[in-house]
Each structure stands twice: as C-alpha cells, then as structure tokens.
Specification:
By secondary structure, the chain is α/β, with parallel strands linked by helices. About 30% of the residues lie in helices and about 20% in strands.
C-alpha cells in the first residue's frame, strides 16, 4: 500500500481506497483498522473511509464499532449530521441472530427467556447513502454484566450478504485485545500510525501480534500532516 501524508482528507481516502483495491462486484470485503496506541486517529480514518466508500464509490457500507462501551462512531456522526447526514432510527444489526460478542451473565427478558446478545447491538442508517453505523446499547446492561469480543466468524459471514464493504473500527492495542481476537475473520487489516511517531516498537509489536493471530496486514496509514515519510517506515515494512 502506498504511504502518503494526510493533507486533503478526501484525496487520502481515495488513495487508500485505490491502494486496497475496490471490492469485487458481488463479494463483500471486511477491513479492520487499528492502531497500537490510543490517540492515533483510527476512528477518524475508519469513519472517513466509510463516508467515502458510501458517497463517492457508491458502495453499501457497514461501519462496525468495536469500542462497545463508548460507541464513539455513532456519537461523532451524530455530532456532524450536517456533513454525514442524519442518523436514522435503530434497526437490528444482526441478519440472523449471530453476534461478535457475549454479554455475561445473560439477561432474561420479560418472558423469562434469555435475552439474545444480538439485541444489544443496533444499526443506524446514515443520511441517504447506503451507509450504516453500529451502536452498542450500553443502557440495556444490568448490574455487573460485562461484554467480551468472541473469536467467532459467524456474524461476519452473515453480514457479508448485506454489504459491499464492512469497516471494523477496533480500539487500540494498548486498550483492548479485540483486534487480535477478530483478526482471523478480517480480509485485510490496516494499521494507523501517527506520522510524527518516532518509536517503532509498539506498532511493530502490534503488527506481529496481528499477523500471529491470522491477520493480513495490508499496510500502514500515516495520520496527521507531515511532509516526509517517517524515518522508521522502511524498516517497519520490511
């Protein structure tokens, strides 16, 4: 993947899209974005790529936010509805009842039966484009319930039938193991690195962990404006 600096965001998204290769007609692609450290701007890149793919490339896009407790993608899009479009009413986010997380201990519905984990995740259409963003219904948790990302491909396989591109925004590696947990079920993984990053160790360790977990690390996206490729980039990509 080509390494470029971020100057014009639309131009950068067009280049990232071209570098990854547009998904073939009739075949969905699942793309994971993650950084080694928090604050690298991964969520911004994931959101802008989804926006570009839906509006400019005309693809059906799902932006799946794995930062379940905060759901920052839903909040960010809602805060800039004049740009992205209005967020629609919540809809079921699972095509078949499968889901990529487990809530423990299970809750019971009014009928006394277990409340399906898939009901904790909602999907919202964004504007008029074929673009959906997920939001975890944290308010539905009760007591000491916790949520864990599952090493299962069922949800991702089911979602492929309803989207051309599925962009998975993962919490950074220093916050969560989510990226390595779902890595085997992603088609490509892009690591986001701050362009002014001088210490290669954390990104390199994250890359190795992802590859060890079965990820296809397609390349790096250097975020934040700079005029030169960071000095460690060549060594990192060897």
């Amino acid at each position: 993947m080509a390494i470029r600096t971020m100057v014009n965001l639309n131009a950068e998204m067009a280049e990232l899209w071209a570098s990854l290769g547009a998904p073939a007609a009739g075949r969905a692609r699942i793309l994971q974005l993650v950084s080694a450290r928090r604050g690298e701007g991964t969520s911004t890149i994931a959101r802008e790529l989804a926006f570009f793919a839906a509006r400019q490339a005309g693809r059906a896009v799902w932006l799946v936010d794995l930062d379940l407790m905060a759901s920052p993608q839903h909040a960010a899009i809602g805060a800039e509805s004049d740009r992205y479009g209005l967020i629609g009413q919540p809809a079921q986010a699972s095509p078949d009842g499968s889901i990529f997380f487990a809530v423990q201990p299970p809750a019971q519905g009014p009928d006394g039966k277990p409340w399906p984990d898939a009901r904790y995740l909602a999907a919202h259409r964004v504007g008029a484009a074929r673009w959906w963003v997920t939001r975890f219904r944290r308010e539905a948790l009760r007591g000491r319930q916790t949520v864990h990302i599952l090493p299962s491909g069922d949800y991702w396989t089911a979602l492929r039938k309803f989207a051309d591109l599925i962009i998975v925004d993962c919490p950074s590696g220093d916050r969560s193991q989510a990226a390595t947990t779902v890595a085997p079920f992603m088609d490509q993984t892009v690591m986001v690195v701050a362009a002014d990053e001088e210490d290669v160790r954390a990104p390199a360790l994250m890359r190795d962990a992802l590859i060890g977990a079965g990820a296809d690390v397609a390349g790096l996206f250097f975020n934040r404006a700079t005029v030169e490729q960071p000095p460690f980039a060549r060594a990192f990509l060897r």
